[in-house]
Amino acid sequence: MPVVRPSDAVVHEMHGARFVSYATRATGSRELCAWRGEIPAGTRAPAHTVSHEEILHLLAGELLITLDGTPHRITAGDTVIVNAGATLAVENPAAEGAVSWVTTSQGLEATLADGTRIVPPWAN
């Protein structure tokens, strides 16, 4: 389906954040996937290593992104490029929620520090 309406999006929740999935195999995308991330104030997601490159664009709010051990404070309008194999941690230390748009190729997997592999359904 070439047009994905908000009512077609699938919502997933993990680590205190909401992932609203728009572009997936299920909605007709053949190579890419994209979702809106809603990160409430005070949320801290665990560090994870990604198998595929991700592009995160912050639409609203601010986040503390730690990329391969280096912290970066990003604000609305900033874009973060997370290369495959990089370790990423996302935290919202602000008093307000943040909203991001993320795009990656299908098949993304995330590996936590303890070796646990996560295959996010919004990225496949």
* Total beta strand runs: 12
Radius of gyration: 14 Å
Uncertain stretches: none
Total helical segments: 0
Q: Name the structural class.
A: mainly beta
What keywords describe this structure?
52% strand; 6-stranded antiparallel β-sheet; mainly beta; 124 residues; globular
Describe this structure in words.
The chain is mostly beta strands and 124 residues long. It has no helices and twelve strands. A six-stranded antiparallel sheet has the order 1-2-3-10-5-8, with no helix packed on it. Strands 7-6-9-4-11-12 form a six-stranded antiparallel sheet, with no helix packed on it. It starts with 9 loop residues before the first strand and ends in a 6-residue tail after the last strand. The mean pLDDT is 94.
In short:
The protein has no helices and twelve strands. It has strands at 10-14, 17-23, 32-39, 48-50, 54-60, 62-67, 70-75, 79-82, 87-91, 98-105, 110-112, 117-118.
List the helices and strands and how they pair.
Layout: E1 10-14, E2 17-23, E3 32-39, E4 48-50, E5 54-60, E6 62-67, E7 70-75, E8 79-82, E9 87-91, E10 98-105, E11 110-112, E12 117-118
Antiparallel strand pairs: 1-2, 2-3, 3-10, 4-9, 4-11, 5-8, 5-10, 6-7, 6-9, 11-12
